Amino acid sequence: MNKEETARDPITHTEMSSMNNQKLNWLRAAVLGANDGIVSVSSVIVGVAGASNSIGFIMTAGVAALVAGALSMAVGEYVSVSSQKDSEKAMIEKERQELIDSPEAEQDELVVIYERKGLSKETAHLVAAELTKKDAFAAHLDAELNIDPNNLTNPLHAAYASGTAFICGAIIPVIAIILPPANIRIPFTFLSVLIALMITGYVSAMIGGANKTRATIRVVLGGLLAMVITFGIGKIFGVSGI
Prior knowledge:
Layout: H1 3-51, H2 55-101, H3 103-116, H4 121-145, H5 155-178, H6 185-208, H7 212-240
Helix pairs in contact: 1-2, 1-5, 1-6, 1-7, 2-3, 2-4, 2-5, 3-4, 5-6, 6-7
């Protein structure tokens, strides 16, 4: 390994760690989006099915809930990530200006940060001086803000991922309600949704490092409660003729 490759290794490892964390965050968000799609659309479907046996009414409600939910998720994610990105850009520019206005004070601030991380005063001064000499701006963004200016989240990508994840989850109850005969339509949908929720609950717990059994039970019970309540409301409205 030559000197040039050795010098690039720490940067490559840092970037790789950042990319891995970002992938985990995206995967976790995708699982949660799919879970939202399953619960919300299945609740609408069984609620309508409780009030009417018309597959046309049920499908219309299901597809409408799927489209509205996916668009809502995508728009919400776009707005949220855009706000976060604007805030990160503002902090980046503020840090850039501070380095121009008071470079010495900023280097002292870097020393304090490394001392708080456990380095001795002498080592902190040495590290801060070397990093400042190499790239003061990048050093401050990493130490103070934990931001990579070249790897900011894209709001459009976030919106697309969120909407797509919702659709992937929502399509399960939509398909489940139309496949079986009318007499087992509701039980089949409940069973399909519960199995899907078990999978999303397990995967989300695995990604987050949480207790898999507890997380799965929590997700399944939450989804089951939502479906039971909406089905009951649908039955009440259907019987009363409202």
